[in-house]
Every structure is written in structure tokens, then in C-alpha cells.
Amino acid sequence: MPDQQTDQLEQLADPRDGIFRVERPWGNFQQFVSNERVTVKIITVEPGHRLSLQTHDHRGEFWQVLDVPIEVTVGDRTWSAEPGESVWVPVGAVHRMANKGDQPGRLLEVAFGEFDEADIVRLEDDYAR
């Protein structure tokens, strides 16, 4: 019998569906998530580098590309995600991000579920970890 946490992770909806933008007199804001258990990071990928090809058993990840195009892989698909583009990585999906440009690139990452760096299963790694 699966535990409750596994059931909840499998039912994680793509959070991009809940993103909204609100205009204000001073400009606007985008809201990505509200009242959820998450871990938030900004990841910087240096030019010519990439993260390991990996999976996670206990979390899904939402990425928002911030500065420069970043090559992303999710499942069988690889593409150049442009600044402002959002990406959903479901629990268990094979994924990677790479910077093929000539300046550092940043991504906002919101991880949904149980966050633990030990949850990384590396399938390929340029740094032999």
C-alpha cells in the first residue's frame, strides 16, 4: 500500500497552470505558488557547463528561466528555454539544464515535495560525482 506522501507527489499538478500576473500602478508581479510546502533556489549555470542528467523520487521542480537561454531536458525532450519561460519537471522525470551561451544563466527553482539533496539520482555527470 503506497504511503500518503507518495500519493500526494504523484498527484502534483503542473504549477505553471496556477501562475498569474497582476498589474499595479508601479508595474506588475507574477505569482508562482501560494501556501504550498516548497523549497526555493536560484541556480546559476556558468557558460559551457551543465548539471547532471538526473531524477528525483520525492519532489517535482518548477523552473523559471531568468537571464539567458538555457538548454533544458525533461524526459525525451530537449530545447532552448528562453528567459521568462517556465518548465515543469514531474516527480521521477529525467532532467538536466545546461548553459551553451557565453554568460552565466540563472533559473528560479521551486521544488514541490520533500526536498533533500540526497534525493538526486545521477544518470550522467560531467564532474564524476
Automatic annotation (TrEMBL):
Residues 21-125 form the Mannose-6-phosphate isomerase type II C-terminal domain. Keywords: Isomerase. InterPro entries: Man6P_isomerase-2_C, Mannose-6P_isomerase_type2, RmlC-like_jellyroll, RmlC_Cupin_sf. Pfam families: MannoseP_isomer (PF01050). One of its GO terms (molecular function) is isomerase activity. Transmembrane segments: none annotated. This is Phosphomannose isomerase type II C-terminal cupin domain.
